[in-house]
Amino acid sequence: MKAFVLQRYGKRGRAGFSDMPEPELRDDEVLVSVHAAGVNQLDSKIKSGEFKLILPYRLPVILGHDVAGTVVKVGSLVSRFKPGDEVYSRPGDFCIGTFAERIAIKETSLALKPANLTMEEAASIPLVGLTVWQALVERANLKEGQKVFIQAGSGGVGTFAIQLAKHLGAFVATTTSTDNLRWVKELGADLVVDYKKEDFTELLTDYDVVLNSQNSETLVKSLSVLKPGGQLVSISGPPDPSFAKAIGANWMLNLATSLLSAGVRKKAARLNVHYSFLFMKANGYQLQRITALIESGAIRPVLDRVFPFDATEEALAYVDAGRTKGKVVIAVQ
């Protein structure tokens, strides 16, 4: 089958199309014919080798973390899906490979596609949807009436996070560029900071939760907008010792995460706020709950561009440029 394969790590890492063997289907897996695949910064970080310590893939590996498609075949232990079902997923770590014509996915990582979405729209949801759900619902336990600061409101994570936070009843602040101010407000943001003209630290105060997706400078600044006891959940690093413990890291990775996050953890402690790093995990049951929100109209997908399968390299470069308005998707079929 045709697939987009990473052959060598590096900023100029070698990746391209190759003929790959058909996926081997295990008893607890579902074989999916890929219709569309979402493109994420995580794909580029794996390609560059930035995540080699956390995700030590053995090369070659097929890239891609989001998928929407049709069930072709199911393993002998699978009970929730059947051939012909339209599904979507963020496959688990070390089980990725959605930039391909077919992929085998664990039943527990899969959910039925929202009936009101196209395949391309559905493929834009799993990774950002699960990331936001696990950050705001599981980790931060965001409640009605609380205040949350979501950085980069026009990006893939930001557009989903604004909608989910509003559904939960929170007051939402975010940042974006001048051109996107009105558009981000229409998504549900209550307060929008134009990062080209304003400093969010001068406008935001006493927030309960911050969802950090930006660089280390923005991360440190964001701690100051929290009220005592507030939480900053970062999806862009640095990893902390709790994360290393959760993944069963060896002593070297434990030491590395402790050193990398020492500065931000110390500042958080001085301000009496809590810092944690979140690395999203595949979860089909949470994705089912997201499906219900989408079908009810509480959350809608935001697509920037859809690239043809042959333009996968261009799609990755487009996402790398950091100016997307919503999600980027590859149409495989």
Structural notes for this entry:
With 333 residues, the chain is α/β, with parallel strands linked by helices. It is built from 10 helices and 16 strands. Helix 5 (181-187) links the parallel strand 10 (171-176) and strand 11 (191-194). Helix 3 packs across helix 4. The longest helix has 20 residues, at 251-270. The two termini are 13 Å apart.
Sheet with most strands: 7 strands, mixed
Q: What is the string of SSEs from the N terminus onward?
A: EEEHEEEEEHHEHEHEEHEHHEHEHE
Q: What's the number of helices?
A: 10
| Total count of strands | 16
Sheet/helix structural class: alpha/beta
Portion in beta strands: 25-35%
What is the helical fraction, as a range of percent? 25-40%
Rounded mean pLDDT score: 95
What quaternary form is this?
A: single chain
Task: Please give the alpha-carbon distance between the first and last residues.
Answer: 13 Å
Q: Radius of gyration in whole Å, from Cα? A: 19 Å
Question: Low-confidence spans: pLDDT under 50, at least 5 residues?
Answer: none
The coarse silhouette is: globular
Keyword list:
single chain, 333 residues, alpha/beta
Layout of SSEs?
Layout: E1 2-6, E2 15-19, E3 29-39, H1 41-48, E4 61-62, E5 67-74, E6 86-89, E7 102-106, E8 110-112, H2 119-123, H3 126-139, E9 147-150, H4 156-167, E10 171-176, H5 181-187, E11 191-194, E12 207-212, H6 216-223, E13 226-234, H7 241-246, H8 251-270, E14 274-277, H9 284-296, E15 303-308, H10 312-320, E16 327-331
Parallel strand pairs: 9-10, 9-12, 10-11, 12-13, 13-14, 15-16
Antiparallel strand pairs: 1-2, 1-4, 3-5, 3-7, 3-16, 5-6, 6-8
Helix pairs in contact: 3-4
